[in-house]
UniProtKB/TrEMBL annotation:
Gene source species: Metabacillus rhizosphaerae
Domain ABC transmembrane type-1 residue range list: 83-263
Transmembrane stretches, start-end: 31-55, 87-110, 122-143, 149-171, 192-219, 239-259
Topology term for the membrane: Multi-pass membrane protein
Keywords, alphabetical: Cell membrane, Membrane, Transmembrane, Transmembrane helix, Transport
PROSITE patterns registered for this protein in UniProt: ABC_TM1 (PS50928)
Name this protein carries in UniProt: ABC transporter permease
Amino acid sequence: MNNQSTISLDKLKPSKKKIVKSKRELKHTSIILKGFILPIFIVVLWELTGILGLISDTLLPRPSVIFTTFIDLALTGELIGHFQISLLRAIGGFLLGGTLGLLVGLAVGFSQNIEQTVDPTLQMFRTIPTLAVIPLFILWFGFGEVSKILLIAKGAFFPLYVNTFLGIRGVDSKLFAVAKVLEFNRWKQITLLILPAALPNILLGLRLSLGVAWLALVAAELMGSSQGVGYLIMDARQFSNTSVVFVGIIIFAVFGKLSDSLVRVFERRLLKWQDNFQG
């Protein structure tokens, strides 16, 4: 009887793994909730200033008015149509520019000869503002989708290129001495040593590249576009419809944050081995 009661009590006790998992979940939930404190405070203060008439509704409409406008645009299907087009442009430009940036960054990082030949020119192109090349893109590619996607690709290229290159060159040279002792060949050095050590920089470049892709999307949709969230903002500005302008801005902000958070999820999973200062 005593043995049976002991076994039943052990079954009732929560396992250590479950306790650790629940603690992690609670910590993760508290982090998410903390992130909402400042936005909620800003929205409440913003709404109160509008209700009290401290700020004109034409210049800064209340959050409730913006939300109503968002619902109206969503119900008519106008907003969804514009957003789908903008999302496809952003994804297309990011995939093109980000992939090229990653590949060129790897090539330049692994070879000094390629670095000396290619990097000076790329660094020169990197300093050219995106807005400065819009007239050229219009002359070369017209007002169609090609010019917009290429403009987004230009913006997405350089963050991934620079961070991939710096990540590879930032690998501690002492690790190569260990690789020699372990008799690693070149392929093992790249896959088991260099790329894992450079991964934090590469993922940082991915986050920055996504952010720049959303910024470049706005610039791309301002150059003679007739569809997209950027066009919706410009059209609303012409008619002084400030609430629609804010709807477009908030959409860019929300989906830019969601894409950044998605990369951070991959960071947490791929960089579990890191033991960094948490603040």
